[in-house]
Amino acid sequence: MNETLVLLDLEETLVDDWSSFTAVNVAPVQRWVSALKKVAEVNEVPVRFGLFSFAVWNDGDLARLQKNREWLEGVFGFQFDDNLLWTVQHISKRVEKACRVNFVSQSDFFDFIGANKTLTLVSLVSNDPFFKGKNVVLLDDTVEHNATFTHPSQNVHLTFKNPKNLD
Hints:
This protein is of the alpha/beta class and about 170 residues long. The chain has one domain (about 5-165): Rossmann fold, CATH 3.40.50. The protein has five helices and six strands.
């Protein structure tokens, strides 16, 4: 079975907002993470957790997240994979390369995708070799719960989960 990448939003998914950093959706996310890890263990499938949040723009924001990382991981019961801590800058560069576009600025990127994480992730999994052969889950408060996308030639399956509908 394929590796699973769980990409996590921050604001209104794990924390209320970037400024106060108060945990939200704790019980449902904890139960979901625990169940996901148990299934992965039984099926001997690796699961890695990463960041896919438009709240973390650059390395400065990532440094702030790192200060709260241990607390966040402890609250929700997962550990971030260092290689999957992506800022908006990282995401836009991946989209540029995978989709063969060139953004002049971060606002150019947002004009292209319209702050739509669903479209961004679909673009990436469809074109970025990194995602080939993987199961990808986006946990985000703005997505349609249990919506799916499959890209046969990349052998990628993408599932969207909304923390407000995990119970």
